[in-house]
Amino acid sequence: MSATPDEVVLKGGRANTGNVVRIGDQVARPAYPQTKTVEHFLQHLIQAGANFVPEPLGFDEQGRHRLRFIKGTAPAPPYSSWAFDETLLLQVATHQRKLHTLAQSYDIPDDASWANSAGDYFPPQALIAEKLVVCHNDLGMTNVIVDNEHRLVGFIDFDYCRPVDRLFDIAVAVRHWAPFGDLDLVTGQEPDRVRRFRLFCDVHELDHAERRRVVDLATLFLEQARRSLLQAVRVSKPCSTPVTRPPTGPPLRGWSLTQKRWLRPRNWQAWRVEIYKQQFIEFMVRSDVLTFGDFVTKSGRATPYFVNTGKYRTGLQMQRLGEFYADSIESFMHESGQEIDVLFGPAYKGIPLVVSASVALANRGRDIAFTFNRKEAKDHGEGGVLVGHSPVDGDRVLWVEDVTTAGTSIRETVPIMRAAADIQLAGLVISVDRSERGTGDVSALAQVGSDFDMATFSIVTVHEVIEHLAGREIDGAVVLDAAAVDAMHAYLAEWGA
C-alpha cells in the first residue's frame, strides 16, 4: 500500500510497518478477516465509555479500516527511561483493567472472526480460567500512546483481540512492561522488574495464585519463542534472496510449518503440566536424581526408573529444591483453602527438605515454622526428640518428605508429634508420586492419606514425568526415548494404582 500525497505514513509497529497512514484526523489500516469483528468490538467499547481506544469509522473505498487518530506518540525501541516511569506503568494497568471490565458486557456476534496469531500462543486449558473475555492480547509498549508529558492517552492496534482469560492478557502486557527477558533495547538504568510486576498485579488486585499463573503464562511465551527460534536454527539455510512481503494480501502471520509442529496436540500435552512442574522434572534429571534404566526397589520390584534424592549435594540445588516444594505447598494451600502453621521433616532426608522449603516460603512472605525429629532422644541440653518449633495445641502440621512407599516415616513420626501437642494433620507433600500400589489396591501415597485422614500430594507424578520427558531433549540428549516410555507404561500397567 503506497501513500497518496495527503497521507502520512505512521512509524512504528511490526506486522503493519509502512502500511498505516494518517489522513487528517483519521487513520487508515490494512483490513484482515478479523477486522469486521474488531470494528464491532471497538464500537462497543466506545459506547461503554472507553475514551482511550480509537473510535472505529468503518471502511474506505480501498477496503482499509478507518479509525479516529489518537494524538500522541508510542514508545519505540531503544526505549528511553521515561517509558519505564512507574506512573505510566500504573496507568497502563489501570486502563487495561477498565478495558476488561467494559468488555464483560460485550455480546460477541455469531459470525465473529479472530486473528489466528493470538491462537498460536493461546495457553492450554490447564493454564486458563473458564470465564473468557475479549482482551487486547498485544499490549506492548508500541501499542500505547502517550502525550508530551509521557502520560497515557490510549491503546491502539486491536488486531489480535479475542476472547481469552484476562490473566493471559495481563501476562502479555506485563512481560513487556516489567519487562521479562532481555533488556538490550532499553536505555538508561535497568528497571526493577520484580517491583514493576508487583505494582502491575496490585492494580488488577490479583491474589497470589493468580500472580503465579501470570508468571507461568509469561514464562510459557518466552519458552515458546525460544523453542521456535531453536527449531528455526536447526532447519535454516543461508538466504540467497531478500525476504520480502507478498505484494498483495495481509502480511504473513503466525509461525512456519516447522514451527507449528510445536502446536500439534502431542506437543501441547506438555504444557498441561504447570511450568514449575516442568522445571522440577528437568531439575531432577540434571541433578541425576531421576534416572532411567534397570533398577530394583526396596520392595523387590524391577523398575525402569529411580528417584534418589540423596543425589542433591549442593547449596544451589537445595535452594532450588526448596522453591519447588514451596510452589507445590502454596498451590495446595490455595486450592484447599487450608492454612499451615508448621512444616515437619522426618529424619534424616526430611530435615534438609523442610528447612529449604521453610526458607523458600519465608522469601515469599510466608514465615511458616518448621521442626524435625532426632532418631534418638537427646538426654542433655534441651533434650527431647524434636528440633526447631515446639508444637502447640491446634498446630496445623504438613509433613515434608522425598518419596513414600509404605509410609513408614509418617507412621513413626505422627505419634511423636501427637505426644508433644494436640496437633492437626494438614497433610503430606512428597517430591514424586510413583502412582503405584502399596500393599493394597490404591497407591501408597493415597493409602497414607486414608490411614491418617489427611491430604497427600506431590510436586509431580510419574505420569507427568512421562508426559513431559517423552522424546524431549535435555541438554542435547533424549532421556526418555520410545523404548523407555514403553517400559514405563508396562511397569505402571502391572503396578500402577
Explain how this protein is built.
The chain has helices spanning 35-47, 86-103, 116-120, 166-177, 193-203, 208-235, 257-260, 265-268, 275-286, 315-336, 350-363, 408-420, 444-452, 462-469, 482-495; strands at residues 8-9, 21-23, 26-29, 56-59, 65-68, 133-135, 144-146, 152-155, 162-164, 290-296, 302-307, 342-345, 369-378, 384-388, 396-400, 424-433, 455-461, 473-474, 477-478. The chain is an alpha+beta fold. Strands 14-13-12-15-16-17 form a 6-stranded mixed β-sheet, sandwiched between helices. Helix 2 runs antiparallel to helix 4 (166-177), helix 4 (166-177) packs across helix 6 (208-235) and helix 10 (315-336) packs across helix 11. It is elongated and about 90 Å long.
What characteristics describe this protein?
497 residues, alpha+beta, Transferase(Phosphotransferase), domain 1, Rossmann fold, 3 domains, 6-stranded mixed β-sheet, 19 strands, 38% helix, 18% strand
Quickly count the domains: 3
Q: Rg from C-alpha positions?
A: 27 Å
Question: Architecture of the largest domain, CATH level 2?
Answer: 3-Layer(aba) Sandwich
Quick one: how many beta strands? 19
What structural class do helix, strand and pairing data support? alpha+beta
